[in-house]
Every structure is written in structure tokens, then in C-alpha cells.
Amino acid sequence: MSENEQTGKRRTYRKFTAQQKTELVVASLRGHKSVAQLCRENEISETLLRRWREQFLAAGQERLTGTTERGENDELKQRVARLERALGRKTLEAEVAGELLRGWE
């Protein structure tokens, strides 16, 4: 039985801000200190820092390729085009209906 289980205490986890994570990831990428040394100094596991690095690099790659933005922009442009066509049809229908009603007078 662990000490925490014997005393009834729960293990508490530290919360790291995005800024703190970024600073650690950038420091690990610069290579002035090894990953192991950074982890010891900041009392975190190497696995955690490597996970942050993977997330950081994946987000950077996605941002640089712009695939998400382009896909969203294309989708919005298509939606605008559909709405413009629908508005055009309704405008034409209203004009035709107005002409027909004037013919009844």
C-alpha cells in the first residue's frame, strides 16, 4: 500500500500554462540542455515533455500548411455562393409575382 493510500491523501498534479509548456518545449528544441536535464530541473517526466513537443510541432506544421484554414474558407465560399443563388431565385420570383399582380389591376 502506498503512502498516499495509507494517509488517505490524493495525489495532486501541477497545472502548466501554455506559456510554461511553450518555454520548456522551445528550450528542449534549442538543445542547450538535454531533455533529461530540463525534466529534472522542472520536476516533470520526459514522457510529458516529449508529448508537449509532439503537440507543439504538429500544431506548427498544421498552421504552416494552412490546410484547416483553406478548407474552412472554401466551405464558407461555397455556402455564400449557394445563398447568393437562393437569394437571386427569390428576388426573381418576387419580381415575377409583382408583375403578375400588377396585371390583375
TrEMBL record:
It holds the Pfam family HTH_Tnp_1. InterPro entries: Homeodomain-like_sf (IPR009057), Transposase_8 (IPR002514), WH-like_DNA-bd_sf (IPR036388). Signal peptide: none annotated. This is Transposase. The lineage of its organism: Bacteria, Bacillati, Actinomycetota, Thermoleophilia, Solirubrobacterales.
